[in-house]
Amino acid sequence: MATARHVIVAGAGIAGLTAALALARAGLRVTVLEQAARPEETGAGIQLSPNATRVLIALGLRDLLAPMVMAPQATRVMAGGSGHAIVRIPLGGEAERRYGAPYWTIHRGDLQAALAAAAKSTIDITIKLGTRVDDFVAHIKGVTVQGRSDRQVVDERGVALIGADGIWSSVATQLRRQRKPRFTHRTAWRALIPADAVPAEFREPLVHLWLGLDAHLVHYPVKGGRLINIVVIVHDEWNETGWSAEGSRVEILRHFARWSWAEKARELIAIPDQWLKWALYDRNSAFRGGVGPVTLIGDAAHPMLPFLAQGAGMAIEDAAVLADMLGKYLDDPADALRAYEGARRLRTARAQQASRRQARIYGLTGPEALIRNLGMRLLGGERLRARYDWLYNWQPPEFIAHQSQPL
Ligand SMILES: Cc1cc2nc3c(=O)[nH]c(=O)nc-3n(C[C@H](O)[C@H](O)[C@H](O)COP(=O)(O)OP(=O)(O)OC[C@H]3O[C@@H](n4cnc5c(N)ncnc54)[C@H](O)[C@@H]3O)c2cc1C
C-alpha cells in the first residue's frame, strides 16, 4: 500500500477501531493490526457517557448500536450496609436533553463487534487479525511497522503509527517514554447473569452503585436487558496482568460479610457461578505522547481507573481529536500528532485524577462514609450529576460533530 495518507493503528480495541473509523472519515486509509486472532468478546458492561456517545453517533453508529445499548434512567446509589437508596442521579431523557447526547450502557464485546463491523464495511480500513506489532522504525517519509503473525512477518509503511494497544502497550514501551503501570492493590470482578435470575427492581434500566465496606458493587442490564452485568471492586493483592482470569466465587463472597453488607447485595453476589477478574493498574504520570510520526491513544496513553467509567470514553474522545489533527495537518504528521497530544493532555489528566478521587470517596468507611452518604443525599441527584458537566459536555472537533451519515 502506498505510504501517502496511510496510517497504521496497533490494536483493535475500542480506541483503535474508533480511531480507524474517524481517520477514514478524515480521508485517510488505515490498516489496523490486532494481535488477537479474533476480537475477545469477553469483558464486562461499560458505560458510555454523552461525551463518548456524541462521537459514536456522529460516526453514524447509532442504528448499529441501538439494539445493543441500554439507556439507564438513573444511577441509583445504595448504602451497602443498610441496603437503602442514598440518592438517585437522573440520566435517561434528562441527561440527553441537558448534554445533547444519550447516556448508554453496553457490553464491551458488543461495542467492539459493532465498531469492527463498521470498520470492515469501510473501504479505506483494513483489519489484520492475529498480527502483533513487534517493532517500528521512523524515517523521513513516515514509519515502517513490523507485525508478526503465526505464519509471516508483515511490513506496513505509513505516514503515522498510532499505538492503541492498551495499558501494556508495546508501542509505548518501544518509545521509552512511559513509566510502568503501578498496581493499585485492587481487583475488579465481573459476572453476567440472566436478568430473570435477579429481583425485578434490579432488572429496571438503572445503574445500581453500592458503596460498602471493603468493596463497591455496580450492576445494570446489558444485551438489550436480557443479562445483568455485575462488577465488584475490592482491595486485593492479586496482581497478574490480563483481563480475564478466573475468579473464585467463595473468595468474592468473603468480601460481602453478613454483618457489613445488606442481604439484597449478598444475594445478588451469590448468584453467578462464574467470575472473571482483572487487577487494576494505574500510571503515575499523566498522558504520555509519542515521538516523530508515532503517538498513543486510549489506555496506552493514559489508563483510566474504572471509578469514573471513562476508560472507553477517553479513548473515543482521543480518536476524534487525533483524526481531526491528522486530517488537517497531514503534510506534517509529527506536528499533527504533537497537536493532538497537546489537545488531550489536560483533559485526560483531569479525568484520571477525578477517577482516583472517586476511588477514595467510594472507599470511605465508618463515620466518613456516613458523612459522604449524608452529603450526597443533601446535594441531591441533579446537583451531583451537574458536577460532571465538564466531562459530559465535551464537544468533538467540528469535522466529527458535523458527520452523522451511516457508514
Ligand atoms: C479483552 C478485554 C476485556 C476488557 N474488559 C473490560 C471491562 O470489563 N471493564 C473495563 O472497564 N475495561 C475493560 N477493558 C478495557 C477497556 O476496554 C479499555 O480500558 C478502554 O476501552 C480503552 O480501550 P483501549 O482500546 O485503549 O485498550 P484495550 O481495550 O485494552 O485494547 C487494546 C487492544 O490492543 C491489542 N494489542 C495489545 N498489544 C498489541 C500489539 N503489540 N499488537 C497488536 N495489537 C495489540 C489488544 O489485543 C486489544 O485488542 C477490557 C479490555 C480488553 C482487551
Describe the secondary structure blueprint for this structure.
Layout: E1 6-10, H1 14-25, E2 29-33, E3 45-48, H2 50-58, H3 62-65, E4 74-79, E5 85-90, H4 92-99, E6 104-107, H5 108-120, E7 125-128, E8 132-139, E9 142-148, E10 153-158, E11 160-163, H6 170-175, E12 182-194, E13 206-212, E14 215-222, E15 227-235, E16 245-247, H7 249-254, H8 263-270, E17 275-282, E18 294-296, H9 311-328, H10 333-362, H11 366-379, H12 381-386, H13 389-392, H14 398-401
Helix pairs in contact: 1-5, 1-9, 2-9, 9-10
Bound molecules: flavin-adenine dinucleotide.
Description:
The chain has a single domain, classed as FAD/NAD(P)-binding domain. Helices cover 35% and strands 27% of the residues. The protein has helices at residues 14-25, 50-58, 62-65, 92-99, 108-120, 170-175, 249-254, 263-270, 311-328, 333-362, 366-379, 381-386, 389-392, 398-401, and strands at 6-10, 29-33, 45-48, 74-79, 85-90, 104-107, 125-128, 132-139, 142-148, 153-158, 160-163, 182-194, 206-212, 215-222, 227-235, 245-247, 275-282, 294-296. The protein is α/β, with parallel strands linked by helices and 407 residues long. The mean pLDDT is 92. It is built from 14 helices and 18 strands. Strand 8 (132-139) and strand 9 form a beta hairpin.
